[in-house]
Amino acid sequence: MLVVDQENLQDSNKKKRASKPKVRSGCITCKARRVKCDEGKPSCARCTSTNRQCEGYQPSTIIPQATRALLPKALSPGLAVEFSAEPQALEFFFLKTAPQLAGFFGEAFFQGSVLQRSLTEPAIRQAIGAIGFLHERTATGRLSKSKDVSFSDSNLHLRLYNRSIRSILKASSGPDKLSLVATASVLFACFEVFHGNRKTAETHIRSGISLLNSWRDKTKRIKGPWGRRYPSSESRFMETQVAPLLSLFNLNIMEPCNGGRAQFMLNPVSNGRLCLANKFEGLEETRNAFLDMLAAATGNSEIKCEKKRAADIKVFMLSSTGQSAMENWSASIDDMACRNSHSWGKKEQQSANALYLIKLSAQLSTIAYQAQTECHWDKYYEDYKELIRLCEVIVSDYEESGDDFSRTMNIDCGLIFALHAGAWKCRWPKLRQHSLDLLLRIPKREWFFESKHFHQIFTRIKEKEEEHMSLPLHSETDETSLPPEHVRIHNFMVEAQPNTFKGCPAYAVSFWSKPNGLDSPWHCSTEIMYLESTQAVEADIPFNLLGPKISMTLQH
């Protein structure tokens, strides 16, 4: 049985401090506390000595200028760039790619540690140059416009990527290079996500997890909850920056069955007990507790769930153990926000919005396994409103950046997953249409999925359900007129076809319903749809992320 131990780790009573001027330098934690920071990297001694989680450093406001003009000069001796387009690729990574990869919870790694290591480690510089060049190429669908980019540089991303791998292979034998190799594993996986190669990305994540597990076996594993106390800066870096990203990739790109997903947890596990804090101190700790719960739900973890490892998230989410864990986690979010929200700035509030969206999406996902009818989803009107509000806030923050590059890729917050509920299961017309509109405004890619594909499929589901309602042509749908049960689409399945139309690949999309009553056999109608992509890199075939995949053996 999965037992969540919430340890009551209380800091010593803190004396009230007099108000001090705003701290303009140092780590995020010290600035929030208004104390002087020693600016140690990757974590400052001020935080580690008081058992606080060092939230890392905000990127300097001079980074754009430094990247454009000073970065090649700042490299250590022997690290001069080898290709004419490489400085531009590095600049693109720091200005556009790193913020997208960082998302709400990865800033310390992508915009802090990676930047620092790129100035001294050729493997890291080559890896981020490869990612930056590939990102620009896939986002625009063309090569860089720079006149300095020669034909020989057209495959710069592959040349830099291969050189980085060779550099890492040479360095991997050194015991002091473990953090370097772990960093590279994450970056290589990012490269393959942009390249659309799921299998190769899986290989890098599996390698990174194996490396980190081996490192854990050789070092003293902390028994307390994630993010609290670590014996060294290397330990803190590996556990608070690298490990959460490996967990995130493991859960999102590795198949949960046939041994595909690695056994990997962030919080310690003792005798089948997941050790979480009684009170979460911050947003990252709260999010990472959820990642561990999700890892437990998919079964290939160290956690036992009701006498056996859960092979399906349904077993966990519908079990008393799973429901209790989710309720406790949800309550912990509210408690953490109540204690900390008064000190949050814009960045922290954005992260909190993402966390609340994760919470609400997880709660709605359980309905996919509980609901006996499609009309059951109509009970959650207020939840849909809140979900769409959170999505709107998050998307509006993306749009503030003012360019398409900032909405190319999302690996941090499951917007497509969340909008399954709003654009499909929510049949309230205005809310549903708002959700469909959001699918065209969110980042174009989420991991290996194309958001536009889901927009096309959910739009077609909406059309099919409304067609059977016998509404007058071009009439506005009454907000209170919801599709009856017998016309609702319960599930869909997509299969690739060999033909294309104007460059768009064809897919056979099957829609499953119960037109003759819930006790009748499934009815399936199949249509050929041409699903457009926004990038040259091929996306994964879309499927129902909200609930169980429909069986291929179901009778038409």
From TrEMBL:
Transmembrane segments: none annotated. Residues 26-54 form the Zn(2)-C6 fungal-type domain. Keywords: DNA-binding, Metal-binding, Nucleus, Transcription, Transcription regulation, Zinc. This is Zn(2)-C6 fungal-type domain-containing protein. It comes from Penicillium angulare. Signal peptide: none annotated. The keyword Zinc applies. GO terms for molecular function: DNA binding; DNA-binding transcription factor activity, RNA polymerase II-specific; zinc ion binding. It comes from the Eukaryota.
